[in-house]
Each structure stands twice: as C-alpha cells, then as structure tokens.
Amino acid sequence: MYSFGLRSYRKKRFIRDLTVNQTLSLKNDFGNNYNVVIVNRINSTAIRTLMRLNKSSFEYGTVHIIMGQTPDIFYNYFKTENPLKLLKRARQLHLLVFTSDDVRPEDIAPVLVYLWGEFSILNVVAQIPCSWKYRTILITYRPFVKIRDTYGQVQLYKLSDVLSNPLILQNNLINMNEYQIMISQFERYPTAVRNPPLSIKESRIYRNVKDTSMFYGLDGVIVSELSRILNFSVSLQENENNNYYGMILRNGSLIGALAEVACRRTQIQANTRFFAGITSDWVEYTNLFHFDKVCLMVPKSEQVPKWAKMYKILRTKLGITIVAVILLSSIINFFLRRCTGMSNHETFWEMYCLALGCYNKNVLYANPQLPRRIFLGSCMLFFIVFSTILTANLFEEFSTQSYYPDIDTLEQLDKSGLVIKSSISIFRNNSNGLSARLARKTDTSWKNITSTQLAITTKRYAAMGRLQDAKIQIPTKYSDEEGTPLLHVVAECINSVYMGFIVSTGSPYLLVINELLQKFHEGGFYWKWYSDFGVALIVEARAHSNYTHHDLKPFQLRDIQSAFYILCLGLGISIVGFFMEIYWKQIVESWKTLRINYLKHIRR
Fold first, then answer.
1. C-alpha–C-alpha distance, residues 171 and 142, integer Å
2. How far apart are CA 44 and CA 588, in angstroms?
3. 297 - beta bridge partners?
4. How confident is the model at residue 423 (pLDDT cuts 50, 70, 90)?
5. Which sequence ranges are marked TM in the entry (predicted)?
C-alpha cells in the first residue's frame, strides 16, 4: 500500500511507502447496510449556490492520495495509523485509489463511513481505475443527506460530470438537513443563561434560541444563529464533566469541558474562553471573535460613619487649605496692625471671625490704614467663596452615602493583603516585582464556592473576572437590597484578552464556523447581542428589587451627628477648663509646697 501527499509548494512531491498487514475484516465490523446511489442528474442550481456562498469544508493546500488494493487493506491502515496524525489532516482532501479490479462501490462504502464517523474526514473521494465497469466513476460520502430517519448516503458520480462541475464532490455545509451536532455549553452568567428576562425571551430576534441552544446570552445566541444558518440541530451535552471550562493539569491530562472536546465526546465547546495558549494537540480554537479585559473584583470599601463625615472633609486638601490660609492671613494681619491699638491675640481673633463670617468694627467701619483695609476686604471675599464650597461639601457628605477610598491599582491591592482567587495564575509568567508578589498571593485551589462569593462573604479575597461581565454582574447579582454594590472593580486591569470557542482537532465545521463568526464580527452583532442581554438583565434586576429609590429624602438629626459630637467635645473641654480655673491656685500652691518639701528632704 502506498500513501503520498501532493502539495502545491515549490512544485515538489513528497512520497513515502508504507506496508500494512491485513488483520481486520471490514465486512465483519460493519456489514453491508449502506445506502449507495448513482447520481445521473446534476443540480446546476445547487452548484451555482455553492460557488456563490463559497463555504469551503476542506483546506486547499494539501491533497492526500492513498493507493491500496482492497477496502480491508484501507481499513487496516486507518485503524493502525496514529489517530492524531489523521485528525490533523482531516480537513484536507483525501483521494482513495483502489488498484484491484473486482472492488465494487458497495465494498468501498464502509471505508468512507468509517473515516467520517471515526475521524470526521468529510471530503473523501474514491476511485477504482482498474475496474472496467467503475473506472469512470468517482465515489464520495454525503453524511448530511437524510434518508428517512437516518443520515448518510454514498453517491456515485460520472467522471465527465465531475470534470464539468468539480464542486459537486465537495461536501458543503450550507444545509446540513438538521444533522445533529454534539455541542457542549454550560450555564454562565451573563453569556449563557437559561432564564432570561421576559422582554428578551419573547423577542422575535431571539425566538429560535429555545429550539436550538436553549441558552440565552452571547454564547447561546451565537450557537442558535449558527444552527439556523447551517440548518443543523443541537445535541446539548450536559454532565458533571463539562459544566466548567477545564484545564491542563501538570501531568498533561485534561479535565472539564476541555477534556470532553479533546476526547471527541463533544465536537464544539461553545462557551467563550480566553485564548490562553492551550498546548494540547487535540483541541483547536475558532476565530477569536470577542474581546475583553481581565480585571480584579475586590470587596466594596466600608461606608464612612455619619459621625466621621466632617472629619473626612477636614482631612482633605480643602480642609488643610482653609487652615493654612487662616494661619497665613493672621500672620500678615499681625504685621499690618500698627497704629490700630490692637493686641496680638486680637489680630488672630479678628481673622478667625472673618473666616466664620462674623465681621467686627475694624472691617465694617473705616480703617485708618489703606493697605490693611484692602487686605481685610480681600480676605472677606476669599472666605465667602471658601465657606460656600465647604458648606456644599458638608451638605453632600451629610445627604449622600460616602465610602472610604476603593482599591483602584494593583499596587494598592498588593498592600491590602487580599488573596487573589482564580482558576488560573495569570501573573505566573511575569518577572515584574509587583506581578511576582501578586503571583504569590494567587490561590488557584478549587472550592465549593465561587471566588466572587468568597470576596463578598469573607472580605479577604479578590476575584478575577471579565470587565464587561462584571459591569452586568455587580448591579444584578452582587448588590444588597438597597442597590449598594458589594464588589468593586479595580480600575487598573491585568490584561486584555481575546476569546473564542474550541473544537476538536480536525473538526470539519471549523472553516465554515470561522467564516460565519467573521461575518458576525464585521456586522457588529456580538456587541449588539451582548448589550441587549446586559441591559435587559439590569432592568429586570432593578424592577424586582425591593429598594425604592428617592432622589430626595428628609433631613434628620442623625445626619449631622458629627456637629453634635463637636459641640459635646467643646463642652467637655470647657468644663475641664472651668474646674481647672477654680482649682488652679490650689494646685499651684500644692505644687510649690511639694517642691519645697522635696528640696528640704534632699538637703538633709
């Protein structure tokens, strides 16, 4: 048996010989129950449609021509060949040449069916050049032709018809006649949800979802549209092994939905995933059609207590500026006080009264010094502006909820001591000092609770997620009854990533899926679908919320409790000062007596 690849590369041919021992019987394994049809009439309309749509199902770069005597020899060859090697060239065109003169199309049919069922080799053409009866016949297998309740038909074409219309041998994927494709998809909010908002579920745009993917959201709609355009039915594979993305373990084994695709138990994994450079030879990515940023979600900072709101303002630049201006103005006023007869403490007291808006006679009435009048007038205008700003800030703090500063940089996250909970170590390959420290704080161990729930309940974890998803998840899932967010997205994101689906190596659907995904991208459908579901989910969450939001609310005394604390503090200090004034003389006399007695004791 001889196998050689014909490549249009520098017009060279690469030939290699193989010897196959016949140990397996095709007839014993498969029987003879195959539908074989001779095609006598070519549908020219279908050919023109195929040429116009140009949805190719094979790669043009390579043609594999394999020569052998009998179908059993071919069967033994494919059965003993390295399966990964066959899968990697499954989308290429295969030509099987049978050199025996007593081979019939019925004998070849099991080989073609086997190649499709075992390796998903779609475009296979067989020829029997040594047979007088069938030498001008080309044989191919049509897996998407529906015969009663089953699929698959072996068709025979005349060589003259093929030469006139070469595309008739191509298995196009334009219409699969509701052929069943195994697709893995698990529920993931908000890109794959089972119970969408009613406004979306009843929309005419998404009415086909319930009959195809049964998942709403970006991922579910993409599968639904692919099913509608290519006319295939979705066989949703749901079990405990493929309800999460999966990963490659250190020993090289695969788990999760990734393993289901690699083992060909499912053909497409239709949850958008990061292009993380999967090194498995058994899996391929589709076109990377979606883009997002990887960010960290940390617990929302604590709310500022009402009693501390005034002190929060005084700690700001505004409070520091006011105090500095009062001190500087008092010093200048001290040097301008000549010929006024004012004492030192009166000059400082005068400036303090100006800051509070309590103007005394030195400002309200004529002042004998022109420079001092100009200075005091400018101070009046300055303090009017600043007092207005301070009043506005006080009103804003007292009438709204305010929080301590959130974590917005990775440096702040590092200093906070939070543990990063994630299924992947995204800082692993970065030698930067900050990234190395964050990598040591990343926990990739699995638990029965999600990372976001850990961040909310324990306040000791930071969760990793997609930025666009977080903008939907926080107002819909991670907010309290009053609509206050429980998580905060760190403004400095880690990385930007592209995302796509994965398919089994050699999948015959990859080329046509890539073409349609590209058209969806060019038409802007991804962000349209994503925005539709995002807005609908947020609106529904707010409609079902028990919190009634009012722009205006009655002002209560507890809103200004910090002012009463200041009053109580001043009262306490004044009481202490009052008693100190009363007993000051006694305290001084007692101190002098103790000092005298102590000195006398030392002299002795």
1. 7
2. 119
3. 463, 489
4. confident
5. 318-336, 374-395, 563-584
